[in-house]
Structure formats: structure tokens, C-alpha cells
Amino acid sequence: MGLWLLFVLGTLAWVVSRQTASVSLAEALAELRHQRSVDEAEHAELLRRIRAGESRAVLVPRARALGLRLPADSEIVILPAPPAPERP
Amino acid sequence: MTGARAVVRMRAVQAAFGLAVLVLVLRLGQVQLVQGDRHRAAARAERTEQVILPARRGTIYDRNGVTLALTHDVYHVGVAPNELADPQADVATIAKQLGLPRNVVRRQVRRAYGYFHGPFTSTQVEPLRHLRGVHLSGELVRFYPDRDLGQPVLGRPAADGRSASGIERVLDSLLSGRDGRAVVLRDPQGRRYESPSRRGAFPVPGHDVFLTLDAGLQEIVERALAEAVDRFQAEGGDVVVLDPRSGEVLAVASRAARGAATASAFTAIFEPGSTAKIFAAAALLLDGVATPGALVWAERGVYRTGRRTIRDEHPHEWLTLRGVIEQSSNIGIVKLTEPLAPAVLFGTLRDFGFGTPTGVEYPAESPGILKRPDEWSGTTKASVAMGYEVAVTPLQLAQAYAAIANDGVVMQPALVREIRTPGGRTVYRHVPEPVRRVVPAAVARTLRDLLHGVVYRGGTGQTAALSSYEVAGKTGTARRVGPGGYIPGSYTASFASLFPAEDPQLVMVVKLDDPKQGYARLTAAPLSRTVLEQVLGAKTGALDHGRLSDRRGLSLPGVPMGAGTVPYIVDWPPPASEPADGARAVPDVAGRSLRDAVRHLHRAGFRVRLDGWGRATRTDPRAGATAAAGALVTLFAAASGPGQ
Predict the structure, then answer these.
(1) Could you give the CA distance from residue B625 to residue B146 in angstroms, rounded to a whole number?
(2) Which of B175, B357, B370, B388 is the most exposed, having the fewest neighbouring CB atoms within 10 Å of its CB?
């Protein structure tokens, strides 16, 4: 009878500990998901700022303020890439 | 007697207890066995909740992997004031994190339940997550890093009763993924925990889509169009840029002065006017009715045929077919096409794609208008030759010009370049699809030569000319149609161009609706030039600079060509030591690296042409000689030994 009682109590404790561990893991998972969501939000915000920063609407006026301008087509010279070195 | 009554009383009590136990057992049986399922479900409903896990919508990228649209979490914030631990401090934290005035938050918190719709980002609400009394409800929303870039094409997913549009609509089934479901546990405070013992279905994110658009080129085109619409006080306009070899749409911009954003480049039609004359010329060449040198008397600007009078903007006398295209002579093209059978002209235009939708991945694309020859009136053939009584979308016109650029083969336009699963496996990749050969390669070359003349042999497209890389193109200024017929003084100005003229990499159609300056040579053609000039100087993959340098023959014979480019912004004005406009000495750049030598010559105010590769050896004019500002200096270079 005592052995049976011990067995039942042991089983119950095992189930409870598993459930507790699972709930903790689920909480940790939810936390990770949230962290990922925070990272994605930051990523999206940074993307927006980068795109705004590198847009011509921002760059061209600043370049003009520095005394620069977009080159005319006659001022663009395309250099050919150097020939690949010959392999022995 | 007393004992007997006591026994009876005892029996009665026993019976009552027995009955009560029986009732309890019966009730227990009813609750456990008969109503067990109902109560079990009610209990479960108290402790658990079934939730839908929305799938993350796929991301849309441009051809180079630049993000155009993505999905992320946002939150709405609820506040239960009676649960706040320190209302004063908590109000301050909430106001700071949500970026709201403190009195607004305080006002909400005075209510039974405060609510801030937002939406707020995860970053904003992160410090509020563990604040007692603050309840967050999240949702996935679509986010466009550059809100306006390519917006009419991208469209919007369906939301809040609004139907989907654009690419978001066409590819909705692929982008949207599959929602999951889960059972969560709820504690007495209503907080949710994932239930470890109840597995649901995981949400499956949508596929990622790579478009054919080039974000850099798209921005150039959109800005140039917006400026042109403002500058020319036009009602609106469209620009389409295609890669003629693959049919891929590299950029498409549509703008209305009233601010409406619709992809009219795909859906709105217009009479192309003179930009369609090149297709009448194609029919003439194909049918052998005329050669580029065929002469026609242009009637000094006024030609009466039947009851109709046809006029040219500038009077001409004798013109060749080449001259007709270069000068955009209505009379010339009408007289040259007189021997042509209507079916031949119709067939050529049809083969170039007029009157049928291109099949691009966009909803509600217009097929344009091209009447069958049996529906033509006596004047239709002349009208069609001049680009009237036929209507096209800017995309159709670009597709037709792309066929000329592509040695006579019409390509299917495409907006979608690649589709990948969330795991990164490619499930679709665009393969260039030839639709048909419409003219032989030799005829296409002749047509390109005619278009080159429009820009460089005194034609109507001179204002589109670039000085270093040649453009071919055709202007079109067509009267606009209103409810009561043609509107006096109102025109559609268009310019279709091939860049570079030989071995074209880009085909661009620019259309402006009712610009105040009217003619295409004053509006649409300069706009094309502006775009091309910016594309040349931009770091965009839309243009293969290696092929451009090849076109210019910059290398020594036998030296392989690469894709090295030097687009840079030069100091301007040049150093004040030089007179601004007068003659100046050519600097000595011998021995310098090519890049350095070019920079020196530019700074001295000269244009540069390269001959060879390696280190600079000499210039023509030679170093020390004087030359006018802006003069072309040829820079000779040679390889100076191994390893250099």
C-alpha cells in the first residue's frame, strides 16, 4: 500500500514538474517571439530611415549645398575594368 | 412506547439521510455522466482559449533585394487604471513610450478603461509589457519602408473593408501564407500562456516576391516625372522603362496632378500620335512598299485628301522616309502609306502588340484600341499611320519599341522576377518569353537608325540628345480627346526612346497629359534626357556600364572589357584660377592612373574621351596646349607592365 502511494505521488510530482517546465518554456518562447518582433520593428524603422537618408530627395539638396552637382552625361567617363591577369 | 417512537424517529432520519445520499448520487451521476461533457467544455473555456495565429505576409523586394514591403507587429494599448501600481509614475512612462502628451494619457486613465489605438511598434511598447494594468493587443500590419516608391504598382493588401490592389492583389494567395491556430491557457487575471499540452497548427508565412523593378531607377523616374508634371503644369503623366531583351519592367511611374495614384501606365490608354509613325514605317519596309530613301512630296505643309486636310507643323517639300520620321511629317507618312493595304498596316500594328493586353502581372490591364480593317472608315488608314484612331497604354508602346530594340522580337513584359518560399527555395523565376518575331533583324536595325536620326540628324527629338552616349527615339504630340471630340490646344506629349541607340539596354516611354508647353520636343523629350542622364550617373544595376563602355570602344583591341564604372560627383564650379569660359591649358596627366587623369581633366573643365586602358600616356590636344572650356580631350592610356 505504501509503495503504491509513493508511486502515485512520484508520478504526480513528475507530471507537475513537466507541466511547470513546459509552462516556463512556453513563456520563454513567447518572450523570444516578442524579442523577435521588437527586432523586426527596429529593422523596419532602420530600413525606413536608411531609405529616407539615401533618397535623392535628401542627398541632392545636401550635395548642392556642398557645392556639388549631378554630373552631365558628358562628364561621366566609364572606365573599362582592368583585364584579368593571365593564369600560369 | 417511548423506545418504539425513538426507533421510528431513527428510521425516519436514516431514510432522510439515505434519500439525501441517493439524491446526491443521482445528481452526481447526472453532472458527471449526463452533463459531463458540457461542464467539461465550460471549465475548459474558463481556463483556455482557442486563438488564430495570423500568418506573416511575404516580403516584396525589388530586383536587387531592396525591401519594398514587409509585415511586422504593431500593438494597441489598453490601461486598467485600478490595476496600476503607481498611477503617477505609470502615466508618465506610458506617455513617454507612446509619444503622447501626458494630459492625454491622464484623461484616458481617468476612465474605467483607457485605450490607445496607435498602432505602436514593438520597440515603443517594450517597456510597458511588464507594467501591471497595461494590456497589449497585437496585430500584423503591412509596412512600406519608402511609402510612395512604386506604390501604384505594389498596391495594398485587403484590409478594413478595402479591397486589395496591385501586386498585393495579383499575388495575394502566395503572399498571404496560411494562418495557424493554438490553444492558450488563461489565468484568473486573464493573462494568456501557451498551453504546452495542446498543440495547434503553426502559421505558415507567405512567399517572398522579387519584382523586376529597380528601386534606384524607380526613384529617379518618379522624381523626374513629379518635377515635370509640376514644371509643365501637366494634368499627369506616365513613365515606363523596360529591359528590351528580357521584357522586364525596370521602373514604372504614374502621376496625376490631382494626386491620385493609379497605375495608369498599365490601365489608361491614349492616342500615341507620331510615336506610332515608326510602326507605319515598319509596315512599309516589311511590305517592300518603301525604302528609307524613298521620296515623297510633302506638299509644303498642307495636303488635301478627299474632304480631309492634313497639316504638318513645319512645311516641307521633298522628304525621304527617313526624313518623314525625323521631321515627323504627317503628310509624308500618309502619302507613303497610301499604297499599303489596310490589312498590312493593321497586321503590323497587331504584331507589335497593339489592341491586346501585354499580359503583365497587373490587374485590369487595358488592351488598348485597334479596330479591325473591316471596321475602318475611308480616313482610318491615314489616321492610324499618324497614330490616331488607335489607342495604347504606355506599357504597350514600350513593349512595341522594345521589339525594335530587340532585333524585331516582341517580348512578354514582366513585373515578377522571382518567388521564394519562406525557407528560401525558389519556386518561380522569370524566364524571358519571346512572343513573336514581328520584323526581321535587318528591318529592326533600319528602324533604329531612323529613330537615331530623329535625335541626331536634326529631327524632332534633338532635345533628348545626350552628348556622350547616343539615344534613339521618337516624339509624339497628339491632340487629346474630350467628351465632345478633340479638345483645342490640349495635347498628349510622348517620347519613346532606346538607350543606347546601338545595342539598347533601356526602352523608355514618357507621356505627359496636357503639358502647358504642348509639344513633346519641349516636354517629354527633355524629361527623357533628364532621366537618362541621372541613370548614367547613378549606382543602379539597371544599366550595364560594361556594355556601355564596350559600345564606346574604350579598350585596346583584344583587351577584355569589364564592368568598371566611375560615376561620381565632381566639384563645381571648377577652381577659380581658371577663367570660367575662356581657353585654358590642357594639364599634363601623363603617368597618372586613368581615374586620376580623368578627374584632373574634368577639373580643368574639359570633356574626356578615353582611348586604351592602363596608365595615362598622353592627351590630344597635348599637355600645355590651350583649348576652349568644355572641349573634348582624348586621353590615351596604355598598360604599363605586369601587375599594374
Answers:
(1) 51
(2) B357
Please judge whether A79 and B570 are an interchain contact, meaning their C-beta atoms are less than 8 angstroms apart.
no
pLDDT (0 to 100) of residue B612: 78
Predicted pLDDT at B581: 53
CB atoms within 10 A of CB B189: 7
Interface test with A, best of B468, B543, B594 (most A CBs within 10 A): B468
Q: Are B473 and B461 in contact (CB under 8 A)?
A: yes
Please tell me if residue B138 touches chain A, with a CB cutoff of 8 Å. yes
Interface test with A, best of B194, B549, B606 (most A CBs within 10 A): B194
Supply the pLDDT for residue B565.
Answer: 28
* pLDDT tens, position by position, B514-532: 998 778 999 999 999 989 9
Q: State how beta strands B506-513 and B615-620 pair.
A: unpaired
Give percent of chain B with pLDDT exceeding 90: 55
* B82: helix, strand or coil: helix
CB contact B47 to A (< 8 Å): no
**What is the pTM for the complete model shown?**
0.80
**B555, pLDDT greater than 70:** no
B264, amino acid identity: S
**What number is the average pLDDT over the span B628-640?**
79
Among all chains, which residue has been given the C-alpha cell 541621372? B534
Nearest CB to B145; choose among A44, A73, A84: A44
Q: By C-alpha distance, which of B346, B387, B344, B371 is closest to B474?
A: B387
- Taking an 8 Å cut-off on Cβ atoms, the answer to whether B223 and A83 are in contact is no
Q: What integer pLDDT is reported at residue B559 of this predicted model?
A: 30
